[in-house]
Amino acid sequence: MAKDKVRVTDLGRMKAEGTPIAMLTAYDFPFARIFDNAGVDVLLVGDSLGMVVQGADSTLPVTLDEVIYHTRMVVRARRRALVVADLPFLTYQVSVEQALANSGRLIKEGGAEAVKLEGGITMAETIRRVVDIDIPVMGHIGLTPQSIHRMGGHRVQGRRSGTSAGCRERLLEDAAAVEQAGAFAMVLEGIPAELAREITERAAIPTIGIGAGVGCDGQVLVMHDVLGLSESFLPRFAKPYANLWQDASAAATSYIREVRGRTFPTPEHSYGLKGA
Question: In the chain, is it the N or the C terminus that has fewer CB atoms within a 10 Å radius of its CB?
Answer without folding.
Answer: C
